[in-house]
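Regression check, iron/sulfur cluster case 271:
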Amino acid sequence: MTPATTPSTTSPGTPGAQLGPAAAAPGARGPQSSAPPTRPRRPVTELRELAERGARELGHDAPAQAVARWAVENFPGTLAVACSMADAVLPHVISQEAPGVDVLFLDTGYHFPETLGTRDAVAATMDVNVVDVVPQESVAEQEERLGADLWARDPATCCRLRKVEPLNLALGGYEAWATGVRREEAPTRTATPLVGWDETHQMVKINPLAPWSLEELMSYATEHGVLVNPLVYDGYPSIGCATCTRRVAPGEDPRSGRWAGFSKTECGIHL
Ligand code: SF4
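Current build output:
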């Protein structure tokens, strides 16, 4: 089964765009549509050179706004922003340079109500085009095929089915994607560049917030009145699916609340 690739019928700031086969499931929010890039993808060699040039020009610690400007200038209409809806800082930073930019949200079917509420608020109030990226199967269909609570038995497979593969499909056609990955979040993220080449997706990966601390992130949100998931203020500094995220104590590793009890530390979309 392949995802729909019809143009998005939504306008910036309007919730409802969805990408993926399960978008048409009963109860799905909004029309089944995607938000394809507005111009053809350039050859991989050209994109690689752009990534190398961006890394050279921006260095290791350029301001997020400068990184966003570079991204928008070099990938007009072919840039996607990934957002977990823990906060809307990255969509805000990018949309200052690219109003109406596509913001991809991995709608796994297991999110906290607060996360879905944040997504809806972002779609309703910000000048961005929120696109729900949904898995091939609904939760019910997956449970019928693989049994209940796959996340508790085999989170790697669950993440692959509900996050990694849907994102792989959603990114097809874009030339670059921006993520909110920060170096201080985890040992696996300390070397995150501002701009790099994403071998997995064969596209440019841009991490404007890489040098930021959590304090800088929250200060930006406060200063600019950017939406933050209320769970962040309730002991959840890192937010994933409700089934796989627990509250952490003050001073505890922020990501220790993710997949607690498993050796797993990443869902796989940034590997
Ligand atoms: S975070 Fe948990 S529920 Fe969500 S996709 Fe991964 S394993 Fe499944």
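Comparison notes: Helices lie at 44-58, 64-74, 89-97, 113-125, 139-146, 150-153, 155-171, 214-224. Residues 108, 110, 151, 155, 158-159, 162-163, 240-241, 243-244, 267 surround iron/sulfur cluster (CB under 6 Å). No diff flagged against the previous build.
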